[in-house]
Amino acid sequence: EAGVVQSPRYKIIEKKQPVAFWCNPISGHNTLYWYRQNLGQGPELLIRYENEEAVDDSQLPKDRFSAERLKGVDSTLKIQPAELGDSAVYLCASTGEPGNTIYFGEGSWLTVV
Amino acid sequence: GNSVTQMEGPVTLSEEAFLTINCTYTATGYPSLFWYVQYPGEGLQLLLKATKADDKGSNKGFEATYRKETTSFHLEKGSVQVSDSAVYFCALIMKTSYDKVIFGPGTSLSVIP
């Protein structure tokens, strides 16, 4: 069974440029998460989807970040414009049942210069 | 609110040494507990989990026991290898909802030959 797939794996952009990350969760997993992990820290939740509905986006910086999951499967996370402080790993994860294991993708490593 | 505390790193051990990484949690209710591992340049991988009190999770020689009385989930391994060098994250999730995973700050482990 395929795991959570993310792309791109690595991205280097100049500040003020836009960037987008894509995630394909494990088949059948209705719940999808986007986390941000800064260097040397644990992941922090940005947004959580149940099917196509964003049920927790309280930590998403909405002035520059947006996310969508139009058909309740794949999801994209966008940053526009990017700032130097956005350099981090953006992790996508999914789960199929409450309280069950959450599976992570390998992450998209963003460097803003 | 719910939270996870881990021992601070970095931890440096010689090969074949005994490993303990302490983890304690605060939660309203009874969460599921997890240890995730992150190897250099990679995403988070589930190492082991326990879903109720006194359960022992184990994988790849690592073990952790869910202790409700001390609200702890300490990670142990009897003989570490160089390939165990990674960052280890303790985490919890409440079983009653599709809540976010709450991570500890991570403990970096370096094993030297």
Order of helices and strands of chain B: EEEEEEEEEEEE
Query: What count of helical segments of chain B does DSSP give?
Result: 0
The total of helices of chain A stands at: 0
- Give the low-pLDDT segments of chain B: none
Low-confidence stretches of chain A: none
Give the overall pLDDT of chain A as a whole number: 92
Radius of gyration of chain A: 13 Å
Instruction: Report the span from N to C terminus of chain B.
Output: 41 Å
Order of helices and strands of chain A: EEEEEEEEEEE
Mean pLDDT of chain B: 92
- Counting DSSP E segments of at least 2 residues, the number of strands of chain B comes to 12
Radius of gyration of chain B: 14 Å
Task: Please identify the structural class of chain B as seen in this structure.
Answer: mainly beta
Measured distance between first and last alpha carbons of chain A? 37 Å
Alpha-beta classification of chain A = mainly beta
Biggest sheet architecture of chain A: 7 strands, mixed
Task: Tell the overall outline of chain B.
Answer: globular
Total strand count of chain A, please? 11
